[in-house]
Amino acid sequence: MLLTAQQLQTPQFGPLDISLESSERLFIHGPSGAGKSVLLRALADLDPHQGEIRFEGQPQQQIPATEWRQQVSYLPAENQWWAATVGEHFPDANSDHFERLGFSTDTLNWQIEHCSSGERQRLALLRLLQNQPKILLLDEATANLDPENSLRFENLILDYQQQHLTALIWVSHDPVQIARLATRSLYLNHGNWGIAP
Amino acid sequence: MNMILLTPLDLLLTASLVLALAITSWYQQLGLERQLLVAALRTTIQLVLIGWVLKLLFEQVNLLWITAIATVMISLAGYEIRQRQKHRFSGPWGYGIGTLSVFISGFTLTLFSLLVVIQADPWYQPQYAIPLLGMLLGNTMTGISLALDQLNKSALQQRRIIEARLLQGHSACEAIQSYRREATRIGMIPTINGMAAAGIISLPGMMTGQILAGAAPVEAVKYQILIMFLVAVGTGFGTLFAISLASHRLFDERQRLRVDRLI
User: Fold this and answer.
1) Among A52, A66, A144, A175, which residue's CB has the most CB atoms within a 10 Å radius?
2) Residues of chain B with C-beta less than 8 angstroms from the C-beta of A45
3) What is the structure's pLDDT at B2?
4) Which domain holds residue A139?
5) CATH code: domain of residue A25
6) Do B160 and A131 touch (CB under 8 A)?
7) What is d(CA A81, CA B228) in angstroms, rounded to the nearest whole number?
8) Among partner residues B164, B171, B256, which is closest to A82 by beta-carbon distance?
9) pTM for the predicted model, two decimal places
10) Count of the separate structural domains present in chain A
11) Is-contact B115 B123, C-beta < 8 A?
């Protein structure tokens, strides 16, 4: 198992168990307020939580927090940027990589605030992929994108997953997207696994 | 010393001017008269009281008494720092960070100036010890509370950006660094500006007081420079220390941003 969580719990959800194998695409859906985002936050160790999470068998506490978040990488629903230009978020930008994804080296000079929402979301993903994560936690990653940009984003994810045998946990409300991409899906309601209505 | 002593009548005369201002405020329906009179009354009572305390203290040079007074002053400064922050840490940290910082910077610097610079005999002579401590506490308190207020405010307002950096795998230290720098700057700027403006735009209060009391201007200036340096150093180190403690407390052992620790 790549990732396991046992008796995972915060005030908003749980206790619940998760296990994830490499190359899996686990989709989580459920009503808003069910605890989907806080579940991903706990997996990324961004919120205090109870229970045991293991990555490749190693308990979370034994891996330094910064390293954990590079391996188990969480992309929140809204992307955030701490500097003005794209390039400042990509210290070791590789131009090949950028070009394959529909960007050019010039992209590094772009102002974040001038990027479209589709570009921003793809760049936010690329930013995380710099760390070569083993697990990606995606929180309604394409909810604010039009169909064309959603597809580009999905392709970017699928390419990366094939190359690196990454596992995904993807929170999504889109039944078509789930049907298209999921290898497995779970329904979260009132902070616990349930049966989809 | 050729100091002209003030009589109660002199003070009554100026008090009547304050009263005239209050009446004007009432007449023009500004609604400030009540606040003005209460503040004037508080000033009178508080200063007269501290005058008597200092008089008593000066008459019996006793280390124990001075320590007691200093403790009260530092505790009140800590309390004031806590009150001046819109968002502060819950529990003992809310009071502890400010008090500890003001203690470390204000107290050590007062000791330093008494023992090394002024060298009064005995070193704790209250005529020097209490005003020095008071000046230092008053100024470091302002710097520390401005800086802490700014840091906590940014942590709350910018928490998504800070968390984005944590998610990128940055350390807590990297994620908070720019806000730390800004908070420290805001804490220290008033002191730096004060030094830059001294003598040109404003005559510092302490020096003015000494001159009014009959001291030679050049001697008063020397004391003022001493105080300004001490205040700058005290505010600087006090702010740095407080910000360092607070930015530690904003994160836990797993480098998670814990804005839930703020109230």
Assistant:
1) A66
2) 254, 256
3) 65
4) 3-194
5) 3.40.50.300
6) no
7) 41
8) B164
9) 0.91
10) 1
11) yes
